[in-house]
Design goal:
CATH architecture: 2-Layer Sandwich
CATH class: Alpha Beta
Shape: flat
Strand order of the largest sheet: 2-1-3-4-5
Number of strands: 5
Strand content: 25-35%
Distance between the termini: 69 Å
Number of domains: 1
Amino acid sequence: MPSRRQWLRLMLGAAIAPSLSACGGWYLRGTRKTALTGLKFYVRPLADGQLESLFAAELRYAGIQIARKREAADIIVELSNEEFDRRVLSVDPATGKVREIELGLEVQLEVRAANGSLLIAPERFSFYDDFVFDEGSVLGTQEVESTTRVQLERKAARSLALRMEAIDPQRLPKREP
């Protein structure tokens, strides 16, 4: 049986060890910093969908400010040509009815500096997810499809925000006060 002093040392060591490890490089969401932290981004609004707002939230998680006006921004991000598509993946061989459906989201990304110089050339990104179609539960399947669409937009926003980290802040022209 450990003595009281040994027990105290053990507990003190257990309390100090995590703080010394500094979480091994892991950060809580919303606390990570990047080379772009402190810069202002302007995200050009899309016609519909919520990809733009999810993308802006992901940028804020990285410590990047979102400018309300294009003129106030250091970097202008243009998301365009957002398209959802729906494809049949598999069909039941006995009944000929649809079994699996794949949803796709494609979006184009272009990034420019405040002076208009190109930082990231226009790129097309594709994201896919699939789900099982249940003809016995049409309402449930419609709910699954709408949830899958939202998850695709979240995945796209996260991926596009990570793509922003490829921008070299040293290449940005200096703004005049």
